[in-house]
Automatic annotation (TrEMBL):
<dbReference type="Pfam" id="PF02771">
    <property type="entry name" value="Acyl-CoA_dh_N"/>
</dbReference>
<dbReference type="GO" id="GO:0003995">
    <property type="term" value="F:acyl-CoA dehydrogenase activity"/>
</dbReference>
<dbReference type="InterPro" id="IPR013786">
    <property type="entry name" value="AcylCoA_DH/ox_N"/>
</dbReference>
<feature type="domain" description="Acyl-CoA dehydrogenase/oxidase C-terminal">
    <location>
        <begin position="246"/>
        <end position="361"/>
    </location>
</feature>
<dbReference type="InterPro" id="IPR036250">
    <property type="entry name" value="AcylCo_DH-like_C"/>
</dbReference>
<feature type="domain" description="Acyl-CoA oxidase/dehydrogenase middle">
    <location>
        <begin position="130"/>
        <end position="220"/>
    </location>
</feature>
<dbReference type="InterPro" id="IPR009100">
    <property type="entry name" value="AcylCoA_DH/oxidase_NM_dom_sf"/>
</dbReference>
<dbReference type="InterPro" id="IPR009075">
    <property type="entry name" value="AcylCo_DH/oxidase_C"/>
</dbReference>
<feature type="domain" description="Acyl-CoA dehydrogenase/oxidase N-terminal">
    <location>
        <begin position="11"/>
        <end position="97"/>
    </location>
</feature>
<keyword id="KW-0560">Oxidoreductase</keyword>
<dbReference type="InterPro" id="IPR006091">
    <property type="entry name" value="Acyl-CoA_Oxase/DH_mid-dom"/>
</dbReference>
<comment type="similarity">
    <text>Belongs to the acyl-CoA dehydrogenase family.</text>
</comment>
<dbReference type="Pfam" id="PF02770">
    <property type="entry name" value="Acyl-CoA_dh_M"/>
</dbReference>
<keyword id="KW-0274">FAD</keyword>
<keyword id="KW-0285">Flavoprotein</keyword>
<dbReference type="GO" id="GO:0050660">
    <property type="term" value="F:flavin adenine dinucleotide binding"/>
</dbReference>
<protein>
    <submittedName>
        <fullName>Acyl-CoA/acyl-ACP dehydrogenase</fullName>
    </submittedName>
</protein>
Amino acid sequence: MSRLIDDYIRSEDERARADQIDELAARFAERAARHDREGSFPFDNFADLREAGYLKLTVPKQYGGDGLSLYELVLLQERLACGDGSTALAVGWHIGQILHLRTSRKWPEPMFADLCRSVVKDGTMINTFASEAGTGSPSRGGKPETVAVPSEGGWRITGRKTFSTLSPILDRFVVTAYIPGEDCTGEFLVRRTDKVSLIETWDTLGMRATGSHDVVLDDVFVSEEMRITGKGEDDGGGWLLHIPACYMGIAVAARDYALSFARSYRPNTLEAPIASLPSVRHAIGEMEIELRTARSLLYASADRWDREKDARPSLKPVLGLAKYVATNNAIRVVDLAMRIVGGGSLSRHAPLERYYRDVRAGLHNPPMDNAVIQTLAGAALAETAL
């Protein structure tokens, strides 16, 4: 029988890519415990991702990338997270945002083309830094305390950003800033200079190796053409499915570990491994229900987003639901895996305790549970009454 994680591979090309990512995931799994323990950024993993061409997966083919679909992004991100959730989540912000820029066209084409060519040629990466300590999550509409003021030929930006994933490795990034003279929030593409400093604040329970430190901008000059004024097309936020894909991958890794343990562990009170016990088989069955339900919804949502281009804005409730179910089911799967393994699951010498910590971070990635519930309620109430 094929493995559970292979269920959604549709072609030989997808099989070949999956096999390549499996090799990377295995390599990253060997390093994950050290980076988690140290809270260190996995530069070695990102060098491997660049070498493998992973950073250009969603770059349009016209600029030398692979032009992968959302479905394929989900497929590969899930597998990568089986090896190291931190690395998968971090790189997901990059390849996800490239996909978002590709479909929304919110950047001027020359700016986007320059970024894409740099990704392909130099392994450049991108992320948007919007969170701040004083405003909370940007997805909840907080006004940035970071400020951009006009200067000759451009803007000067001052402020401090939190949760700045990938910050140790980026030479450019987008920041949101309040523009007092216009009473609005703007976006700016910033290059790293001596006016940009990294404050290593990221010391968390889980996802310890994402490099999500604070970034401080001290009167940073940004030229006029680096202000991003376009809104682009509403693509429904499909690219954010890189987040639930990551947590599904962690859950699959926990499930596989628990299955291996159940097949091999035989206490001296039993004549067969614990996989023969009805209680253990019941827990395994529960894991399968949670995983198969969530993965079915996740891949179906990604496929709809790829196919229904004109309907993408209306798919937000579906996409949010996919994230909600995947994240919460993933937490349940890891908990069940730990019950199967028992007290040994708490050991720092085994990966389950890291999965337990990492998977909970999904609750704090957008869209958050209560936002999803409100979106679904709004969609239901907006339906035409019979």
